[in-house]
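Dear Dr. L.,

I hope this message finds you well. Following up on our conversation about the binding site, I have prepared a predicted three-dimensional model of the protein together with glyoxylic acid. For your records, I am including the exact sequence and ligand specification that went into the calculation, followed by the structure tokens. Please feel free to forward this to your student if that is useful.
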Amino acid sequence: MKTPSAFYKPLAIGAPAPFRELPLSLERMIHFVPPHVEKMRAKVPDLIEKVDVVLGNLEDAIPADAKTDARRGFIQMATENDFGATGLWTRVNCLNSPWFLDDLLEIVPAVGDKLDVVMLPKVEGAWDIHYLDQLLAQLEARAGISKPIMIHAILETAEGVKNVEQIAAASPRMHGMSLGPADLAASRGMKTTRVGGGHPDYMVLSDEAEGVTRTAFQQDLWHYTVGKMVDACLSYGLKPFYGPFGDFSDDAACESQFRNAFLMGCLGAWTLHPKQIEIAKRVFSPDPGEVSFAKKILDAMPDGTGAVMIDGKMQDDATWKQAKVIVDLAKLVSSKDASLAEIYNL
Ligand code: GLV
Ligand code: MG
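The resulting structure of the complex is given below.
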């Protein structure tokens, strides 16, 4: 274990010091772009206006023979566009792949000064983060980069879920984590071919009773993992995210999965199809009714202590904190989204 004073020291001479607190940024959707496809790269300027984070995907879903083109395409899209307040991330290939090292060796010197976050797949434990942390520091130092590049881990192996707390604590470079339900299902031996979402066979059956028709209630397969990830992230000041939802024909199920994650503490989700952008925006921006009620609580308890009744509901120091989570998020959303700013009226 490092001493507290060593924890925040740059890992290479000349590398920027890591953030002590995460930069305040809105990340309701992390939109995946396949950078080897020219037609998709051409849409990036439009995406920058529409989404909170643009991510160039180099890992799964990119064919092996297109890996180099994807990496070069990412460098091109990062160079050619001004991202403003929109985040620029990349998902690199996993650590044991033949592409990871060149992903980092080519991307950081070329566009490291514009890159906010490296998403690292299939993270198993703190050792994976330590390796990327050190490598990033060396590359940042050599390229003269002044803003530290953050690391976002995908939680998508049984080993990773087991070690989630150590992963969260591994480095001040950690930004957050996303649930990767497809790889995680495979790693755990779960019997589903779906990418996220529920499963019709995962349910609880009501008790048998005379004259009563038994009812089945479908359960959320991801509840346990999302809860574990949220606790690990929030206890270390990191951001938790739901990952991909693969059934593009079922927007209602996508919305419901995103909403469960939002209610449990997640701040955003991946969007793999353009129509998921609006879903994520709707779900991960707080409900205007909730915002106005939360505002009432804050107004009624200016110093955040005591107990008051509002609309027949008891409020105290704890609900004041709940209200603050919602109002703070609404303020962040308002800073980017003029139409919601008008509705929230904060
Ligand atoms: C995402 O990478 C997943 O495996 O679900
Ligand atoms: Mg995966």
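In brief: The chain is about 45% helix and 15% strand.

With kind regards,
A. P.
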